[in-house]
Amino acid sequence: MTVEKHKTSGDLTFYRFIIDSLPVGVLTVSPQMKVTSFNPWAERLTGYSVDEALGNYCGDILQGEMCGSNCPLKTAIDQKQSIVRIETMVQNKSGDTIPVRMHTAALLDSSGNLIGAVEAFQDISPLKTAEREKDNLISMFAHDMKASLTIIGGFVLRLLKTTMYQNEKKRTTYLGIIRRETDKLDALVHDFLEFSRLQSGELKLNFQAVSLDKELMEINEIYQSKAIQSGIQIALRNDDVLPVIMGDSVRLRRVFANLLDNAFKFSRKDTTITIATKETAEEIMIIIQDQGSGIDPEDLPYIFDIFHRGKGTNEIEGTGVGLASVKAIIEGHGGRVLVESNPGRGSAFTVILPKHAKKDSERLEYKKKSDEYCFLGP
Asked: What is the tens place of the pLDDT at every residue in 28-65?
């Protein structure tokens, strides 16, 4: 980077405006490594004001893991060259460590004389968090697949080693276990792929006229036999006729099925699962409430995270993908999902759907809003 000797005050004001407006931290140093300028984003990231930074050694301000012999600024000054895309750690005034992506370059005047160096650095904490979540997701997905494959492999091996005199009852039992684990794998892969496509926008929702009354009545009928077998009652309470909305009926039914499956998993015998509806001028609410074990307050903020399994769920069958898919599908409809829970007394999931189809930009606004959670006291 070359800096000319003569610049008008207008030019310098314009350059300063640009540097101060950049959404990255920018500092310049003298050849002696002392800070000569410090933009507002650098102040925000480091916690130091411009007055505190000016005149101090850059290493005292950034306190980076590369400060010292590996300092990128010092290398840029010594070699009069640019260094780009270095990922390192710096420490702010409060002592917090922040991952940053850094770009440095020597500053030369029009004659090629060294007058200092510039460094731009950007907080990449969200990127690192996303990378960790991706690694965890892949790890847990692989773990769940391996568990089922190990079980399947073990029972297939038993069947292969058996003779024609093997007990027919055992053979049937082994095949039943293999079939169940195969179904679990199929559901896991299907849920994972659908969730990934919804998140990336590759899976498009098929919007058409949907009667929520019809969908809820049909799914209530489907789950009555399961309710009888489980000793749990299921009650549909929607006396008022709901308006027809635009939505993807297949995936909305999947949402209701996931929430009902969840309610059954955590409900005790002789309790009731209720499906109720409410309306406002702009929205329709479908509430699925159980009288089960409830959700631990520490787990509540994370229940819609993919593969999250809360406390006390190790013995309960599931992949941790269902609720993440529920959230993705409803947000794709321009809606949102809320949850209220009282440990020991049950949980209520509320699906909120707009009566009128949202434009893509309006749906995006819903995704930007923070999730809402509520913990009900005893």
From this structure: 899 898 999 899 989 998 999 999 999 998 888 888 87
- Quote the CA–CA distance of 284 and 353 in Å, as a whole number: 5
> Top-level CATH class of 204-378?
alpha beta
| Sign of the torsion angle spanned by Cα atoms 122, 127, 131, 133 | positive
Quickly list DSSP for 325-351: HHHHHHHHTT-EEEEEEETTTEEEEEE
Q: Give me the residue spans of the domains in the chain.
A: 2-123, 125-203, 204-378
The superfamily (CATH) of domain 2-123 is PAS domain (3.30.450.20)
Element (H, E) at 85: strand 82-91
Task: Inform me whether the pLDDT recorded for 182 exceeds 70.
Answer: yes
Domain 125-203 has CATH 1.10.287.130: yes
Determine the pLDDT at residue 377: 34
Within 10 angstroms of residue 347's Cβ, the number of other Cβ atoms is 25
For 106-146, how does the pLDDT look when each residue is reduced to its tens digit (9 = 90+)? Answer: 888 888 888 888 888 888 888 887 677 666 666 666 766 77
Amino acid letter for position 330: I
With left for phi above 0 and alpha for psi between -120 and 50, is residue 186 left, alpha or beta? alpha
